[in-house]
Amino acid sequence: MGNVRSEYTDRMGFYGKEDPRALVRRFGSPLYVYNEAILRRRCRDLVGLSSFPGFFVNYSAKANTNPSLLSIIRSEGCVVDAMSPGELFLNRKAGYMPEEITYVCNNVSAGELTDAARQGCLVSVDSLSQLDLFGENVPGGKVMVRFNPGIGAGHSDKVVTGGKKTKFGIDMDKLDDVLALVRRHHLRLAGINQHIGSLFMEAAPYVSAMDVLLDLAERLLALGAPLEVIDFGGGFGIPYHKYEGEERLDIASLGMALHARISAWAQEHGYSGRFFVEPGRYVVAECGLVLGTVLATKSNGMHLFAGTDIGFNVLARPMLYDAFHDVEIYRDNGRPAGSCAEQTIVGDICESGDILARNRMLPLIEQGDVIAMLDAGAYGWVMASCYNSRLRPAEVLIGEDGNARLIRRRETLDDLCSTLAF
Ligand code: LLP
Questions:
Q1: What tens digit of pLDDT does each residue of 5-51 get?
Q2: Class of 36-285 per CATH?
Q3: In testing the pocket of ligand 1, which one of 170, 231, 281, 382 has its CB within 8 Å of the most ligand atoms?
Q4: Residue 154 region, left (φ>0) first, then alpha (ψ -120 to 50), else beta?
Q5: Residue 156 per-residue DSSP state
Q6: Which CATH superfamily is domain 7-34+286-417 in?
């Protein structure tokens, strides 16, 4: 083995007893690879935020719904959310019981609301009209209401979910309307939640938004609302710039701020319900990467390109959000790395926006190299598509014994026809 750039995964022991090139030979390319030990470590970081008995990590399953990962996350003591019938189904497949699932949805049908409630999940609605619809269909039921704290944060405008410009949550100043609907349909207002956006690296906006929700909870308790769950949302960031030594989110100080607030608040208000945080990315991003193969290299004018089989159908984040994922390069035969040059790594999709990594100063990439796009465990496979009628990749998990096993097979051409009627 003559890996050209692998210090990060070497340091983490990411591949256990396996080797990335051998994994690609065995399972094909492109390939999502996950590491169980890292997944467990990230769950433990979050579960350890607070020792308050009513504190729970409500893993946001939209980041990755592979049931093999979900069952590990469950075994670490996390509960889970779902935002579609598919996520609910997969959570159940992984062993989650309905009472461990909150259904945090947006603009859904009466059937979807009713089904989630009938299964026994606590359903969160995020507009007055959805609250009314829920009440008409599940009169007397338990409901959770998502408020918009007016504070937003996130790595891209596309993922900021708090603040007036976004479609999410109910304005805090519509509380009277919420309460009127709750009364009209004899609902039990059992939970409140919020989510300010995705990927913050500084705890301050999250902690300020917590205070906003706790103030609201105080008003609701005073009005006699039977609150059981106060859910502060997710958004916990991870350092994507691994090779620049980007600092991690300071989980210890976030934990101190969170623990101090919730334990004092619960004591002051005699609250014996639960508090949730709802992270997705933090749990799964770093335990996953996607391997691909360099199939062509070229220069167009001054620009060097490495062409791979990781199109934006496989990893959509760079194309969608200009998101940064760090790159590793693996090569056989012990050939040393050549000189460094600015290169752009692209995929095999028929669009010029199909760019994985733009103008990166890296050792010269060669045809036949295997590359890894790091930190692809969150919003990676789940956002993959069959665009250009390409097949979605397989997923393997490196267990704590260091061995890899298949946790999702690669799609086949027959899968492309499986829903056709012709
Ligand atoms: N709770 C709610 C209500 C959410 O909408 C989300 C994410 C989360 C929790 C989890 O957020 P996280 O902890 O993962 O930041 N596809 C984008 C991210 C979209 C996030 C959508 N909502 C990306 O790849 O960056």
A1: 999 999 999 999 999 999 999 999 999 999 999 999 999 999 999 99
A2: alpha beta
A3: 281
A4: left
A5: S
A6: Lyase, Ornithine Decarboxylase; Chain A, domain 1 (2.40.37.10)
What's the alpha-carbon Rg for the chain, to the nearest Å? 23
Give distance in angstroms: CA of 317 to centre of ligand 1: 13
Ligand 1 pocket by Cβ (under 6 Å): 60, 62-63, 104, 159, 161, 195, 198-199, 233-236, 278-282, 317, 321, 379
| Choice among 105, 350, 386, 417 that is catalytic | 350
pLDDT value of position 155: 77
> For this structure, is 350 an active site residue?
yes
Q: Is the model's pLDDT at 1 over the cut of 60?
A: no
Whether the link from the prior residue into 30 is cis, omega within 30° of 0, is: yes
The pLDDT score that the predictor gives to residue 333 is 76
Point out the ligand 1 atom lying closest to the alpha carbon of residue 323: 25
Residue 68: name the closest of 413, 357, 394, 300 by CA: 394
> Tell me, what's the pLDDT at 2?
64
Instruction: Specify the residue with its C-alpha closest to ligand 1, atom 21.
Output: 159
Whether the CB-CB separation of 32 and 381 falls below 8 Å is answered with yes
In the chain, where the domains are located: 7-34+286-417, 36-285
Tell me how far the alpha carbon of residue 33 is from its chain's centroid: 16
Provide mean pLDDT across the span 115-141: 98
Mean pLDDT of the 296-323 span:
97
Calpha distance 102→88 (Å, rounded):
9
